[in-house]
Amino acid sequence: MKFDFSLEPVLKVRKHEEKLQKQKLAEKMSKKKAIASKKEKLKEKLKAHLDTADVNDFRNLHDLKRHRRYINSLHKEVEELNNNLRIVENAIEQERDKLAEVHKKRHIMEKIKEEEHELFLEKLSRQQRKMMDEIATQSYSK
Question: How much is the pTM?
Answer without folding.
Answer: 0.73
